Amino acid sequence: MRALLAFLLMLIAAPLAAQDLLPPAPYAYKQLDDPRQEEKAQALMETLRCLKCQSQSIADSDAPMAGDMRHQVRSRIAAGEEPEEIREWLIERYGDYVTYTPQVRALTLPLFAAPLVFVILAVVLLRRRFRKRRVV
Amino acid sequence: MSEAAKDAPKRAGIWLWLPLALFAGFFVLVMVGLLRPADRDVASAFVGKPLPAFDLRAAIPERPGLKTADFADGKPRLLNVFASWCIPCIAEAPQLDALARAGVEIHGVAIRDRQEDVQRFLAQNGNPYARIGADDMSAVQLAIGSSGVPETFVIDGKGVIRHQHIGDIRVEDIPKLMEKLREAGA
Question: Is the pLDDT of residue B175 over 60?
C-alpha cells in the first residue's frame, strides 16, 4: 500500500524545475493599452529569437527570459521607441542571431543580390534570343 | 561541327561524375554536422564595450547592491551572472570561491531571485561576492548581451567588458580567466 502511494506521488511529483519563483515582469503577459502600439510590439516580438529556446520567437516562448524580453520590447514601445531601434539595440548585444529577419551584411549580400542578378541575366538572355530571331 | 562531335564524349564523361561528386560533397557536409554539432551558445556582442548604466538594489542585506560606477575604480574584476534556481551555478561555486580566495573581486548579478532564496543558496554553496545586485527583470542581463545563467564577464578597471565566459566555470577554465584578468590589468 505504501509503495503504491509512493508510486502515485511520484507520478504527480513535479521534477525539480530550474525555474525562478519571481512573478513575470509586468509586460511579459500583459498587452499594451494602446492597440496600435501593441500591434507594433507584437510584430516585433514575433521576429525576435528567444535565446533560451532557440527556435522559438519571444512571442511564442514561456521561458522567463523571453517574458523579460517581451517586457523590454513593450515598455520601450510604450516609451515611444521605434521597433527597428529596439531590434538594433538587441543586435548590438546578441548579434544578428537574435533577429529572424535577415539583415543586409557582407555575408548575406548574395541573398539579396542574387534575385537582381538573375533578373538582369534573364533580360540579357531574352533580348539576345529575340534579336536573333528577328535577324533570322 | 565535327570538332563539337569529337568533344562530346569527353564532356559527357565529366558530367557523368558530377552526381557522385555532389553526393560526396553532401556526405562530407552531413558528417561534419554530425560529428561537430554547431555551437548553440550565443556570445555577447558587447565584449569590448563599456558596461551600460545600471543601478541594482542589493539582493541580500549582507552585501551592497551593484551599479556601473562600482566597476570604474581602476581594478579589474569578475561580473558573475547567477541565480539560486540555476543548477550549473552550484557546480561553479567552488571555482568562484577559489578565485575569490586568490584575491579576485567578484560582483554578482542575481537573475530573477528572491532574497531568501539567494541567502539559502549562498549559505549552501559559499558566498564569493563582494556585491550582489538583484536583476528582477533580467534588464542588466539583456543590456550586456548575456543569454543565460551562469555567465561570467571579465571587466577591466574602466568598466569595459573584456571577456565573456558562457556556462559554469570548471577547474580547467580558471587559468584562462586569470589570464584575461591579467590582460585587463590585474
Answer: yes
DSSP lists the bridge partners of residue B82 as B110
Contact (CB, 8 A) for A52 and B147: yes
The three three-digit cell numbers of residue B34, written as one number: 554530425
CA of residue B68 relative to chain centroid, distance: 19
Which residue is closest to B51 within chain A, CA to CA?
A93
**DSSP secondary-structure letter at B155?**
E
Cα–Cα separations (whole angstroms), residue A53 to A62, A94, A123, B82, B96: 9, 15, 45, 19, 27
In this structure, the answer to whether residues A39 and A73 fall within a common structural domain is yes
Q: Does the beta-carbon distance from B40 to A51 stay under 8 Å?
A: no
- State which residues form the domain around A67: 23-102
Number of domains in chain B: 2
Query: In whole angstroms, how far apart are CA B72 and each of B49, B50, B107, B160, B172?
Result: 13, 10, 13, 9, 29
Query: In terms of residue numbers, what domain contains B7?
Result: 1-38
Same domain, B30 and B69: no
Pick from B137, B161, B168 the residue to mutate for testing the A interface (most A CBs within 10 Å): B137
What ipTM is given for this predicted complex? 0.81
Q: Hunting for cell 554530425 — which residue is that? A: B34
Do B64 and B149 lie in one domain? The reply is yes
- Asked whether residue A121 is assigned to any structural domain, the reply reads yes
Interface contact A71, partner B, CB < 8 A: yes
Nearest residue to B79 (alpha-carbon basis) of B154, B150, B139, B136: B154
| pLDDT score, position A52 | 86
- pLDDT exceeds 80 at position A91: yes
Q: Is residue A115 assigned to a domain?
A: yes
B172 touches B52 (CB < 8 A)? no
Q: What is the pTM of this model?
A: 0.81
**pLDDT per residue as tens digits for the range B83-109:** 999 999 999 999 999 999 999 999 999
